[in-house]
Amino acid sequence: KLPGLQFNNQKVEAAYRKELVYGEDHADRAQPATLNELFSRVRKNYFRLYFHYAYFNLTATWYGQLDILYNLVVLFPSIAAGKLTLGLINQIGGVFGKVRDSFQYLINSWKTIIELLSIH
Q1: Terminal Cα-to-Cα distance of the chain (whole angstroms)
Q2: What's the angle, vertex CA 117, arms to CA 111 and CA 118, rounded to 5?
Q3: Is residue 17 a contact partner of residue 42, using CB atoms and an 8 Å limit?
Q4: Cα–Cα–Cα angle for 111, 1, 105, nearest 5°?
Q5: What distance in Å separates the CA atoms of residue 66 and residue 77, rounded to the nearest whole number?
Q6: Do residues 38 and 19 make contact, with C-beta atoms less than 8 angstroms apart?
Q7: Which end of the chain is more exposed for a tag (fewer CB within 10 A), N or C?
Q8: Which Pfam families match (predicted)?
Q9: pLDDT tens digits, 12-38
């Protein structure tokens, strides 16, 4: 959904800018009613874009927080049984961190990916 919204954002912004440029050259262009209509489209699209980015960021943050707790959930039985030393827990936590960083590449790069997908 985000690539389509980003693509639509480029279209409505371009239409608004185009009308403003035509208004500089021709007095009959860029009438206030037309500009208000075009600007309302830009504004509406930005609100939709911000809403969906907020939803995505909320989900990504939630995933990141649960991902941090995942290694503790997996290791809890061994920790409770006293089979792991503190050094071993830290080493395993470091390994989980490296794997987590690798999996979060897409989440961290998603904004760039969306912008590239919106350029047909």
Answers
A1: 15
A2: 90
A3: no
A4: 30
A5: 18
A6: yes
A7: C
A8: SbmA_BacA (PF05992)
A9: 999 999 999 999 888 888 899 999 999
